[in-house]
Design goal:
260 residues; Methane Monooxygenase Hydroxylase, Chain G, domain 1; 2 domains; two-stranded parallel ribbon; guanyl-nucleotide exchange factor activity
């Protein structure tokens, strides 16, 4: 198995550190590599045994099931981690000069997709990687994806709260708090400074549609938050009222910074 790559499914609830330790116990002479970067030739040619272990994210094949409304969450959860051929991991990096005030401007992502010989889980808990594809995502594409994911997460939490699937509302409270807090502390403004300024628009004429998409996602997020706060208000316990009020006040600040 020299110079080969596998995706392995750990035990239920096994943390990455525990999995790494388990592998190092199986290969006691191996040297653990502490990064996810592609190893250089000297490592591939080395006499010594190296192990490189990092977490990857499953890419579900069945997007239709995941996006359709009315399908129970436990079924969606199953499709997110079963019958998976493709996995990916992201490596953020900065290109060009890094703006200390606004790191979003130069934050690229190198996305590696691993395609397996067979889907996981199978008879075995691990299968070999057949091929890997690497693409680079621009700072703008990265911003769009971050917002899409966050909007989806908010929607899911709000609907779980509405349908009383949530035993306590902490996950929704924390998510609302995180998004509104980040926005008020410059998150929204950083995106605006990075991508909505004349300089960026003139230098990237090909990004017109993506800039529009980002703007739409920001406005959509404001609508989701407004709805989320209304749902939150109905279910928030008495001792968390002050936090709820703070969120509502901050949300109005956020809306005005978006120019809504």
């Amino acid at each position: 198995t020299q110079n080969k790559e596998f995706v392995c499914r750990g035990h239920d609830y096994e943390r990455l550190e525990a999995f790494q330790q388990r592998m190092l116990n199986e290969f006691p002479h191996a040297i653990a590599m502490q990064h996810a970067n592609q190893p250089d030739e000297t490592i591939f040619q080395a006499e010594a045994q190296y192990l490189q272990i990092y977490a990857v994210t499953p890419i579900p094949e069945n997007q239709e099931v995941l996006q359709r409304d009315g399908i129970p969450d436990n079924i969606k959860s199953f499709y997110k981690v079963n019958h998976i051929w493709r996995f990916r991991y992201d490596r953020p990096f900065h290109k060009g000069t890094k703006d200390k005030e606004n790191e979003f401007k130069s934050l690229w992502v190198e996305r590696t997709t691993l395609i397996l010989v067979q889907s996981l889980p199978g008879i075995s808990r691990w299968f070999e990687v057949e091929k890997r594809e690497v693409v680079e995502m621009s700072p703008l594409e990265n911003a769009i994806e971050v917002l899409e994911n966050k909007n989806q997460q908010l929607r899911t939490l709000i609907s779980q709260c509405q349908t009383r699937q949530m035993q306590n509302i902490n996950p929704l409270t924390m998510c609302l708090n995180g998004v509104i807090d980040a926005a008020v502390n410059g998150g929204v403004a950083r995106y605006q400074e990075a991508f909505f300024v004349k300089e960026y628009i003139l230098n990237h004429p090909e990004d017109g549609e993506k800039i529009t998409r980002l703007r739409e996602l920001m406005l959509e997020q404001a609508q989701i938050l407004e709805f989320g706060l209304a749902v939150h208000e109905k279910v928030v316990p008495q001792d968390m009222r002050p936090l709820h009020k703070k969120l509502v006040d901050q949300f109005f600040v956020m809306k005005s910074s978006l120019g809504i």
